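Consider the tokenized backbone below.
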């Protein structure tokens, strides 16, 4: 998931399609977005990983997460590399560490800082290269790619999301009570949607996709159908 190589630099004015997929934690948007990107042969941006990496870098380097200026400074200097499923921070594989619940909570806390969001803006936009991009997060359609070709707000009930998250944790050998997972998700949703900068919100220009009753394949196909309607020549 690195920004595509610089050799793909695009001529100004060239049309680059972007599919922006925003939504709450554990809604399945990462899996769905990755699959849509794969089907279209597009690049993929997991913007949440950048917030998680920023938080982890701070924890590792002893930076106080309450210090907005210091956190933003760390993020501006992030040395990160994506290689298949592996994610490197300062040349160390941190793929598992950034997926912990604690790192998600830390990421959500620092994500409320305008200075941090500003420090990560350019890094995210660098992912927009030919032949196209699928980006997932909380503010892909509202702030980072406001001119996206297709905007989706992907969600599911808190119970369905908690069930998926509990299953994921179990698969990783981590035990979690469903009740605690729901509470944590709701706390994170509230923090993400009530912050003053780039809040998580279903904006009217984004299509609503509720995946409570859908399989991943169904959600992916729905997005591809919408994309074909808008862009019939380009979509396979
Ligand atoms: O999507 P993920 O759970 O990995 O994101 C971790 C945290 O990063 C979210 O809870 C949210 O606070 C923050 N985030 C954000 N904007 C994004 C992506 C993630 O604020 N575009």
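A designed sequence for it:
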């Amino acid at each position: 998931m690195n920004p595509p190589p610089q050799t793909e630099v695009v001529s100004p004015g060239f049309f680059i399609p972007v599919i922006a997929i925003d939504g709450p934690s554990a809604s399945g948007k990462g899996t769905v977005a990755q699959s849509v990107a794969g089907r279209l042969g597009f690049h993929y941006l997991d913007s949440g990983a950048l917030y998680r990496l920023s938080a982890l870098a701070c924890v590792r380097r002893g930076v106080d997460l309450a210090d907005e200026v210091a956190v933003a400074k760390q993020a501006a200097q992030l040395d990160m590399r994506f290689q298949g499923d592996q994610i490197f921070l300062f040349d160390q594989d941190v793929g598992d560490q950034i997926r912990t619940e604690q790192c998600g909570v830390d990421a959500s806390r620092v994500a409320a800082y305008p200075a941090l969001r500003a420090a990560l803006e350019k890094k995210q936009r660098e992912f927009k290269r030919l032949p196209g991009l699928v980006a997932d997060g909380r503010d892909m359609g509202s702030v980072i790619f406001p001119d996206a070709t297709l905007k989706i707000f992907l969600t599911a009930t808190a119970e369905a999301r908690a069930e998926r998250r509990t299953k994921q944790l179990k698969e990783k050998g981590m035990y979690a009570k469903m009740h605690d997972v729901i509470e944590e998700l709701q706390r994170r949703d509230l923090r993400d949607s009530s912050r003053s900068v780039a809040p998580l919100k279903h904006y009217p220009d984004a299509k609503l996709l509720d995946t409570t009753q859908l399989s991943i394949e169904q959600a992916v196909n729905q997005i591809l159908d919408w994309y074909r309607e808008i862009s019939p020549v380009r979509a396979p």
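The first helix runs from residue 29 to 40.
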